[in-house]
TrEMBL record:
Protein name: Transcriptional regulator
Keywords: DNA-binding, Transcription, Transcription regulation
Gene3D superfamilies referenced in this protein's UniProt entry, alphabetically: Homeodomain-like (1.10.10.60)
Domain HTH araC/xylS-type intervals: 176-274
Pfam families: HTH_18
GO MF, any single term: DNA-binding transcription factor activity
PANTHER family in the record: ARAC SUBFAMILY, HTH-TYPE TRANSCRIPTIONAL ACTIVATOR RHAS-RELATED
Source organism superkingdom: Bacteria
Position of the signal peptide: none
Length: 282
């Protein structure tokens, strides 16, 4: 896939398609950070590149998440579906300037090597791509996007979550974010790291806080939510078991059957026979 039309470049914001050949900001890596915004069906690996003096780092990110990594990271596609999404590079000087003028702070520290659920940046990336798909980049428009990205990054990620929130439980609003995300993405392969990223927390801190709040570890809650939906589908329709398994997030019917039997006490087929209610009797 070709780079964005005439590649979007400004002295403090640069943008190219994921998987496009290199970016010149990497030569001055300490001065830039990268915001990776994968498109649907695209998975990206970001890994430590180059110097052996750097500690090994790596992460994988796919929609609906974004990732923030240093400019010296190697960004590679796992699959080659189109569209691929964007890599937006932002100069550190812009972050500091934005923080000073908009937020009144003289320091600006954005953590790197993390992924987060950030619908705002995903929407901004889509808009940035669409605006410049068939026209020459306008410097004023790029400058506005640089301010938008910088202000959002500084405001939301200016401190690590574990520094901002050292509590051992989740507020109701944070728990609602997790529950809503699970409900919206129940068919997908949700990892604990994904749930932690929703709240910009480390996986260990999130798991501890979640269990303290709900009384159960995140994996148990996720599994019971999958099975709750499965029981509803089994009792209300004749959808094939393999389709139900896929809809509630199991990779195979065999795994679905094994987990269902372990938690519910019978197989999905036996549950359907015992609980199915025809529509004319519902």
């Amino acid at each position: 896939m070709e780079q964005l039309h005439r590649s979007l470049n400004l002295q403090y914001l640069r943008c190219h398609w994921i998987g496009a050949s290199g970016t010149d900001c990497a030569q001055n890596s300490a001065q830039w950070i990268l915001c990776i915004i994968p498109a649907d069906r695209t998975t990206v690996h970001a890994t430590t590149a180059g110097s052996s003096a750097r500690a090994d780092q790596h992460l994988s990110v796919s929609a609906p998440f974004i990732a923030i990594v240093p400019a010296w990271a190697r960004v590679e596609l796992v699959n080659d579906d189109d569209p691929r999404g964007l890599v937006v590079a932002l100069r550190w000087a812009r972050l500091r300037e934005t923080a000073r003028h908009a937020l009144g702070t003289t320091t600006c520290e954005i953590p790197c090597w993390f992924k987060a659920w950030d619908p705002f940046l995903r929407e901004a990336g889509d808009t940035l791509s669409a605006l410049h798909a068939n026209s020459s980049p306008d410097p004023g428009c790029l400058a506005a996007f640089a301010d938008v990205f910088a202000l959002h990054l500084v405001h939301r990620y200016g401190h690590t979550a574990d520094t901002r929130d050292t509590g051992t439980s989740l507020t109701q609003s944070k728990l609602s974010v997790v529950e809503h995300f699970i409900g919206e993405h129940i068919a997908q392969n949700i990892q604990i790291e994904d749930l932690a990223a929703l709240l910009h927390m480390s996986p260990s801190h999130f798991a501890r806080a979640f269990k303290n709040t709900t009384g159960h570890p995140p994996h148990f809650y996720l599994t019971t939510e999958r099975l709750r939906l499965a029981r509803s589908l089994l009792s209300k329709g004749s959808l094939p078991l393999i389709d139900i398994a896929a809809r509630v997030g199991f990779q195979t019917q065999q795994h679905f059957t094994a987990v269902f039997h372990r938690y519910v006490g019978c197989t999905p087929r036996a549950f359907r026979i015992a609980h199915y209610v025809p529509k004319d009797q519902a």
